[in-house]
Amino acid sequence: MPNSGASAPVPARTNAPSNAKAPSKARRAALVVLALFALLTGASVWTLQPPDAKPADASPTEFSAARALKDAKVIGKEPRPLGSPASASARDHLTRRLTDLGGKVEAQAQPVSRDEEGTALVATVTNIHAVFPGTAGADAGHLLLMAHYDSVPAGPGASDNGANVAAVLEVVRALRADGGAARNTVDVLFTDGEEPGLLGAHAFVAGGSLDPANTVVLNLEARGTSGPSIMFESGPRNSGALSALSGADRPIATSLADEVYTYLPNDTDFSEFKKEGFGGLNFAFVDGSARYHTPGDSVANLSAESIQSQGDNTLAAARDLSGRDLTKLRDGGDDTYFTVTGLLVHYPRYLALPLALLAAAGYAGTVWYAGRRGMARGGIGRAALTFPLALLAAAVVGFGGWQLLCAIRPGYADLSMGDSYRPGWFRAAFLTLTAAAVLGWYLLLRRKVTAPQLALGGWGWLTGLGLLTAVLAPGAAYLFTWPVLLGSAALCVALRTTEPGSGDTWRTVAVSVCALIALPLLLPVIVLVFPTLGLSLAVAPLAVMALLATVSVPLLGLLPRRTAPATTWFALAAGVALVLTGVRLDTFDADHPRHTNLAYAWDADRGTGHWISSDNAPPKWTSALAGYEHADIRAEFPTFPTTLAGGLATQAHIATAASGSGPAAPTVTVKSGKAGKGGARTVRLRIKPEPGTSYVSLFADTSAHTVAGADVIGAHVKGGTNRPTSAGPWKWGFALYSIPADGFDITVKVTGKGEIPLRVTAYSRGLPQGAGSLPKDLTWGTWGANLTDVTAVGLTVRG
Fold first, then answer.
1. Are strands 594-596 and 778-780 parallel, antiparallel or unpaired?
2. In angstroms, rounded to a whole number, what is the distance separating the alpha carbons of residues 782 and 290?
3. C-beta of residue 201 within 8 angstroms of C-beta of residue 280
4. Residue 661 burial (CB count, 10 A)
5. Residues lower than pLDDT 50 in the chain
6. What is the DSSP letter of 233?
7. Which strands form 706-712's sheet, in the order they lie side by side?
8. What predicted TM-score, i.e. pTM, was given to this entire model?
9. What angle do CA 160, 166, 171 make, to 5 degrees?
10. Largest Cα–Cα separation, the chain
């Protein structure tokens, strides 16, 4: 880089002191910086740990995980999918508990249909709504505490979402123990049918009983069995709601998660409220995902510390919001937010771009000034241009490491959340190996690039990312903006106060300010993203690790010269040792069973049955039934694998069972009306499935007909094409849950010449006897939780 304005610069690597006292002061400052870095590392990691669980005899005004666990044990003792007897039993328990707490409780049963793009979902849901009136009367707002009480059919759902239902009960009890009612009305909503597709929340919002203008929602979720409570999503105009978290002991929140979540296909009940303009906060714990949506999501595997973390944060926010004028919360705007060593920071999101521009200007000015002071030369450009090597190394570690683990232990490939039972060994290994790669990059450069130049090269990437995210994802820009902004200011001060040629120690101390700022911002992201995305997507947190390592590497310039190569070799050896240890310890056994998926499909038209598995690497028990060859099953089973989002994969193992007699098909009676004006007519179906049927799907062949709509159990399903990407002609359809015992009627309005083919499929829990018992070292997997350990019986009728 040109050294404009410096007539006779002294080489930047000269280490001769200008006086005797400077080196001593610089060394002391270096020790302080290193101590601060170590302290911030420890503090950041500590604040990301859930607190100890409080006992049952804790103060009545405190949240106690031990008290909440009593309800969790009742709710999470067995699977309770929508419409099941266990769901009704849980509902009775929750109604009694809310009544005992003093609430006015109503079980709201109503038909509901969600018919956006994709297979429409229909059911009769029963939400539980309890009201605890506030003291402000007509001026009271509404604080809505929400959690869903249903589970997937595959597991008892002790974490998802029994623990959070229990946490809401304990929060309400603690609020009542404060003495007297709060200013605002506290509403409790336990929703039904969240697992099939947010059906209960959809029905409640459509009912319009609460006004977004004076209601704040606190939703509790889980996507694992352990880990700290994370506030990962906020509603519109979040400034006021966010401030309620300030009273929590050590909250964890980041608007980065909010930004990422908008691009993911995931939803919670909070999504239904957010779409209608409700403000609020969404909490979840996400570690231990190997047991998510499996039989292993039991009370025995539930972390009491996670319940305590979830409860502490929710109670703190609820106390604050229950006493405020909630109509004024909407006066605020949307904030960027994050926590630093347990302290919540938030400021208006519209500042993201100005701050990023300011950081970019500060960075450009610092590079220019470094050139004026004889420090820039070509080192900054060399560091910036070679930085992609560090990112490439992180990608190789993440992607290659996961592929290697799956090759060593094929069962890992079917852990659909991408995490094993004991992922800590591999997380530590991947992080250590990424650090070793960045250190190797530093060793290659340090003969020609000083530590300050290396830092400035890395800051260039942070600056670019800050500008990019400020435009595309402003809630994430803080990660890059603040380290560059404050680091540039510190380096400019060092350049101003030290003479050219006086050595790099003071300047290295100055650039370390960037690392000290970046550490508490980036480290929580690394720690939290790992369990969120899993080892299979480790590339994402490792890329952040590469950034953090790059801005932190200049710290090695404060240590003896031999420290860097020794640290590099140590990190490499430690990473390999951690991988080997993880492979040795993280095995499958009866307590940590391998995942598998298997379903049986019986085609009543042809009299043939098929075993279907979506496993990437099926174990012997599954392969003995479903075979070993992958096939595209959409042509032969166009309705079965795409009934629900998250169903069986397009590529699946499939084997044909012996033809002959199979499971009984549902009884279907069809009556077709005469075509009226425009060729429109009504087709009426009476369907009586076998006892034990979980749900029924109906699909229409739309190649020569158009469906105008359908009515079932009092709900309406829109017509048209709601399954545009499905294979074959079955472009419209719905799945019905909560099957009436005596059957049900469907009215379908169609246009088109001739009879319309309709495919009716009934799904029931369990496999035919020929499957045998699931071995003890296997468990039903997470993926396609509604379409594993399931028998599907389909037939085609015409109307």
1. parallel
2. 8
3. no
4. 9
5. 1-22, 641-648
6. E
7. 667-672, 680-688, 744-751, 706-712, 715-718
8. 0.92
9. 125
10. 104
Residue-level pLDDT at 19: 41
Q: Are the C-beta atoms of 219 and 270 separated by less than 8 Å?
A: yes
**Helical residues (DSSP H) of 51-197, grouped into ranges:** 65-75, 85-100, 164-177, 194-197
Per the CB < 8 A criterion, the answer to whether 487 and 517 are in contact is yes
3-class secondary structure, 362: helix
- C-alpha dist (Å) from residue 6 to 12, 377, 382, 455, 628: 12, 11, 20, 21, 71
Residues 6+ apart with CB under 8 A from 290: 296, 415, 417, 419, 420, 421, 423, 592, 595
Query: Mind giving me the DSSP string for 174-187?
Result: HHHHTSS--SSEEE
Tokens of 772: 């045998």
> Nearest CA to 6 among 367, 368, 373, 365?
373
Question: For 245, which DSSP code?
Answer: G
Please give the Cα distance from 462 to 703 (Å, whole number).
Answer: 53
Task: Return the DSSP state at 753.
Answer: S
Query: Rounded to the nearest 10 degrees, how much is the dihedral formed by the CA atoms of 618, 619, 625, 631?
Result: 10
| Residue 646 pLDDT | 39
Neighbours of 4 (CB within 10 A): 9
Is residue 522 within 8 A of residue 547, CB to CB? The reply is: yes
Q: How many CB atoms lie within 10 A of CB 419?
A: 29
Q: Are 144 and 280 in contact (CB under 8 A)?
A: yes
State CA 297 to chain mean position distance: 17
Q: What are phi and psi for residue 301, nearest 5 degrees?
A: -100, 5
Pairing of strands 120-132, 730-736: parallel
Q: Is 265 exposed, middle or buried (0-12, 13-18, 19+ CB in 10 A)?
A: exposed
Question: Among positive and negative, which fits the CA dihedral 481, 486, 490, 495?
Answer: positive
Neighbours of 310 (CB within 10 A): 32
Which one-letter DSSP state was computed for residue 244? Answer: G
pLDDT reported for residue 741: 85
Cβ(154)–Cβ(140) below 8 Å? no
Q: Tokens representing 253?
A: 């929140």
Amino acid at 503: G
Burial of 445 (0-12, 13-18, 19+ CB in 10 A): buried
SS3 of 370-431: HHHCCCCCCHHHHHHHHHHHHHHHHHHHHHHHHHHHHHHCHHHHHCCCCCCCCCHHHHHHHH
Collect all residues with Cβ–Cβ distance below 8 Å to 630 and sequence separation of at least 6: 651, 652, 653
Which residues, 6+ apart, have CB-to-CB distance to 364 below 8 Å?
A: none
Q: Using the 8-state DSSP alphabet, how is residue 766 labeled?
A: S
CA angle (285 as vertex; 226, 233 as ends), nearest 5: 170
Residue 651 φ/ψ, nearest 5 degrees: -90, 120
Asked if 795 and 605 count as a contact pair (C-beta separation under 8 A), the reply is yes
Encoded amino acid at 449, one letter: V
Distance (Å, rounded) from C-alpha 482 to C-alpha 347?
13
CA dist., res. 411 & res. 429, Å (int): 20
What is the SS3 assignment for 695?
Answer: strand
The H or E element that residue 707 is part of is strand 706-712
What are the C-alpha distances in Å from 443 to residues 556, 562, 776?
A: 11, 11, 50
Give the list of residues 6+ apart from residue 109 with CB closer than 8 angstroms, or none.
124, 125, 126
Burial class (CB within 10 angstroms; exposed 0-12, middle 13-18, buried 19+) of 633 = buried
* C-alpha 18 chain-centroid distance: 55
- CA atoms of 90 and 158, how far apart (whole Å): 12
What are the structure tokens assigned to 37, written together?
């870095």
Element (H, E) at 655: strand 651-656
Reading the block at residue 131, the tokens are: 């009201």
